[in-house]
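cron nightly-structures :: item 1 of 1
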Amino acid sequence: MLLRSLPRMSRPHAARELSVWALMAVPTGVLSGGVAGVLVNTVFESRAPVWAVAVAVALLTGAGPLSNMASLGWAHFSLGREKIGALNRLQLGFAAALAAAALVPVNLPGLVAFVAAILAAQTLWCGIITIRASVWRLNYDRAARFAFAADNQAIVSLIHAITAALTGWLIEGNPALFRWLLGLTSLAAVASLFRLRPLRVRRQRRLLEAERRQAGDGPFRLGRYFSILRDDLLYRRYMICTMVLGSGNLMYPAPLILTMNRELGMTSFSQVLVTAALPTLMVPFSARYWARTLAREHVIGFRRRNSRWYAVAIAISFAGILLGQEPVLWASAVVLGSAIGGGMLGWSLGHNDFAPEDRVADYLGLHVSLTGLRGLIAPLVGVWLYGTLDALAPGSGHFALLLPLTLTTAGAVGFALFKRGQSPFSPTAGKDGSEKGL
């Protein structure tokens, strides 16, 4: 049962907070990479140049990670600010960006405006999860935090799966319905704002005092955050392995969507099923297992186990494309969803195994900003490689998927060696004594 593993006194607060993120899961389900990519491809396919639509697909499949480049700024913005009030302001801006996306014309300028609005919404969502990390750190101890995150992830993933399937079904029948879809989801974001407003944050006064001392050190400086990479060897090595693995994961969806649409001729509903609905539907079934795993070992050991699943999923997907068998793509989506169930937990909570309490936002901000960097580069590289291969030999664009497969495999190998204290990315790996629970 949800929340049963939490302390009894925490359950009413946690139940209300779950309802907040359940409401926010409706719009974020539409904005998730696979859904947004299929949405823009379907709505603007015959209304804008092919190259512009392809770039839009790349940007929107990587929009969530790309927006994380702003996380360092959000971490600085949150210093010394009352957390719930800051979250409410960001939620309001998020809803406004969705409403703006619903009003764009369906032509090339409208495509540009649509991508800009979605990127704005994703950037505000990045601020929300950055500040939320501090709230979770204060309100829940380690075991409760993992249990609550798993429960939240289960609910959010189910809503994402339903939203993704509904979106694919609606736009396949009538692409113009995207306006109503985005308009209604913006109302869900507004409703979540009112649900969040009464919540309280434990020990917030002490945290705000510590943060104000940090803010008093001077204006925003990138060096403050990247000094973490200089001073924390273990976290630096963790970030390198994560960068390699994550680049493959983020490169994968865009060429996959183009392959399913242009080479396999799959419907919008089928594309959403493979890229979003099935993977997110699997998350609740794997999240509890991954939460127990993460609770009993350091995130580096956890990542060693979890990263293999991503490589296997992309390998199965590539085999399905070679065979021209859609059911094989469904199987790859199931495996990918099982990986994501753990990957989301590691991504949102793993920094807690490195960060001191008063620098949680800094560590998370650095982590998600690096995610944003690969979110900008990886999908565009995937689309460029797809287009190049297809131009050289029409119908061969799907071989672009071999690059993300190589990267995810390299990342999985990196974490395996890292766990043994033999990081392939650092000649001094394993020689320090600060393994923090490895």
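cron nightly-structures :: done
The two ends are 32 Å apart (CA to CA).
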